[in-house]
Amino acid sequence: MATTQKRKKQLAAILDQFYHNPVAQVSMELFLTVGLIIFLALFAIRPTLLTMSDLLKEIEDKKALQEQLNKKVAALGSAQSIYLTLENRLPLLDAAIPSTPETINSIKIIEKLATDEEIVLNSISLTEVPETPQTIPSFDKLSRVNLDFSLTVSGDYTSIKNFVAGIQNSQRTFVVESIVFKIAESRGDKQLRASIVLKAPYFGSQGIANEKK
Q1: Quick one: pLDDT band at residue 210, thresholds 50, 70, 90?
Q2: Whole-Å CA distances, 129 to 55, 146, 199
């Protein structure tokens, strides 16, 4: 028992001597300093670092957005220059594929071409006569729709051929779907007749286009 008490006293003396040693004091101060830094990093500096990280991310996002905007501005500038170059030709596009059916105008073109080639327009019919809208829908609601014509003409082969070529070269766009020739007799005379199917495209509303499909 006396030996144990003696050892405890010796250990206490050694520890007291150690803590009064300058090296021990420096070590304690260093430990406290490191602990303070860790505390500040966890509870004081960390929110600031998180805020800085969010700000840096926001800055990067804004830079990316700015680059996208710059590209769009450049694309709009290029589109505007192209538009100004082609502006005078836009009426030709509207004449070729109008934004309304223009049924009467299309029939008049066909009749004039037949007259020019001196062939007889025996019949002309439409699969369906579309209604002309009171107002033109916005562009995103438009879709290509066709007027479906069926014609029967009489004349010599060259005139009929020129008539079809005139239709294909007309400023108003016509698509020749089919031509069927046959010989018909009229009052004892034989005539060359052609049955022609045409499509005249125009831009109509998507609802009409879907119904036709």
Answers
A1: very low
A2: 63, 11, 13
CA distance 112 to 170: 11
Angle between the N-to-C axes of helices 103-116 and 157-168, in degrees from 0 to 180, rounded to the nearest 10: 140
Closest CA to 198 of 121, 141, 89: 121
Inform me whether the pLDDT recorded for 104 exceeds 80.
Answer: yes
Based on the fold, state whether residues 18 and 70 are members of the same structural domain: yes
- Choosing from 50, 79, 96, the residue where a domain stops is 96
- Is residue 110 within 8 A of residue 151, CB to CB? The reply is yes
Looking at residue 101, its pLDDT comes to 85
Domain boundary among the residues 96, 129, 162 is at: 96
